[in-house]
Design a protein that fits this description.
Strand 2, helix 3 and strand 3 form a beta-alpha-beta unit. The chain has 2 domains: about 45 residues; about 260 residues, Alpha-Beta Barrel (TIM Barrel). The longest helix has about 45 residues. The chain is globular and about 45 Å long. Strands 1-2-3-4-5-6-7-8 form an 8-stranded parallel sheet, sandwiched between helices. About 50% of the residues lie in helices and about 10% in strands. The N terminus is likely disordered. It is an alpha/beta fold and about 325 residues long. It starts with a helix and ends with a helix. The chain contains 10 helices and 8 strands.
Length: about 325
């Protein structure tokens, strides 16, 4: 009898161990399949259908804050993005950071972004840097980098205030190509640089070009005034990068503009990714609003030009 009990107990233990092994194997296969599905979705630019959380897009980044070639810099910057869960990044400006670059420098700056884009196509996107003080040359550079190249938007900085009529040919050309225009905007207490645009300048330009899509970078820095300045121009989207992550910034933008007119940008490597991301993730907003700001709005804005180019977003 004791011998029989011992044999039965051993048989039961072997069965239990076998079942545990089978369950562990099954769970491992399922986890691997789920990971593969997420990686496949990430590679194709689509959200994981099993998750309600969309991909995060950073619409404002620079090849700065690290050293090396464009290829070396982008690899390091993408490591930082990985740490905080940023999936797609839009880069612009290049290395020089000249405020009024001549055409040959524009080309070199854009070449640096093009080289960075080639390291991670489908994850790294680019906006062509243009200078309204060189309109004809800027249009040719647009055609080189956007019409005939992989870039999907325009970056304008501080060479000329954006309400000036000299920007009109550039805006018209970009609008025909369905390329959004990201314009630096700021309101400095000590006074702006001579060519530095304010959100009110941005609103004037947008009112002249209602078919164009504009992104007001930094929402003017002084965001309480900046948000109100662009409120009446529905083709201007507020971008949250650059300023300190003060409580209430994202909430006011959504309250005044609607969640579909707000996008996330960090301005890295000049700013901390985590602090800029916290403006949205720590905001008192619904998950739906956060998803729009963190990625869905950028996908919608870039959708038309990317579809024309056959780029998955």
């Amino acid at each position: 009898m004791n011998r029989a009990r011992q044999v039965n107990a051993m048989s039961f233990d072997r069965t239990r161990i076998s079942r545990r092994s089978m369950l562990r194997h099954t769970a491992g296969v399922a986890a691997a399949a789920a990971l593969a599905g997420r990686q496949s979705a990430s590679a194709s630019g689509q959200e994981d259908e099993r998750s309600s959380k969309p991909l995060i897009w950073d619409v404002h980044a620079h090849l700065s804050g690290v050293a090396g070639t464009p290829e070396e810099r982008i690899k390091k910057l993408l490591e930082y993005a990985d740490r905080v869960g940023v999936d797609r990044v839009v880069f612009h400006l290049g290395f020089s950071r000249l405020t009024d670059p001549p055409p040959d420098q524009l080309r070199r700056d854009n070449d640096e972004v093009l080289r960075a884009m080639a390291v991670a196509p489908g994850r790294v996107f680019g906006f062509v840097y243009l200078n309204p003080n060189y309109v004809d040359e800027s249009i040719r550079e647009f055609d080189r980098c956007v019409t005939d190249g992989p870039m999907v938007g325009v970056k304008l900085w501080v060479a000329a205030r954006c309400h000036e009529s000299r920007l009109d040919p550039i805006v018209q050309h970009a609008t025909r190509a369905k390329a959004p225009i990201l314009q630096h905007t700021w309101l400095k207490t000590v006074g702006n640089m001579p060519g530095e645009s304010t959100p009110a300048d941005m609103a004037q330009l947008a009112a002249r070009h209602p078919q164009a899509t504009f992104i007001a970078a930094h929402v003017g820095g002084n965001w309480e005034h900046g948000i109100r300045a662009i409120r009446a121009t529905g083709n201007v989207v507020a971008e949250l990068s650059g300023s300190d992550p003060t409580a209430g910034m994202a909430e006011m933008a959504v309250r005044e503009l609607g969640a579909d007119r707000v996008v996330y940008g960090s301005d890295y490597g000049g700013r901390s990714l985590a602090s800029q991301l916290a403006k949205v993730t720590g905001a008192d907003l619904s998950d739906e609003a956060k998803h729009l700001i963190l990625g869905l709005n950028v996908r919608r804005i870039l959708g038309p030009i990317c579809r024309d180019k056959g780029i998955g977003v």
